[in-house]
Amino acid sequence: MSMGHAREKIAAWTDDYNTERSYSSLGYATPAALAAQAIAQPALMRDNEGKTLIAT
How many structural domains are present in the chain? Predict the structure, then answer.
């Protein structure tokens, strides 16, 4: 396996992990969908003290 082939495989896995697979810990959303929601509605991603619930 060449370095280029390995990079292609890793990129495909990363895309699948972030955009296709939902996770119960994220309310059955994908990481990409949750990130898009955080950008669109940042107030929903804060706790009662105003602290951000996800890393930005």
Answer: 1
* 37 in Cβ contact with 27 (< 8 Å): no
Predicted structure pTM score: 0.60
- For 3-56, write each residue's pLDDT tens digit: 999 999 999 999 999 999 999 988 899 999 988 987 887 766 677 777 776 665
Q: Answer yes or no: is 50 within a domain.
A: no
Answer positive or negative: Cα dihedral of 36, 34, 5, 2: positive
From first CA to last CA, the distance across the chain in angstroms is 34
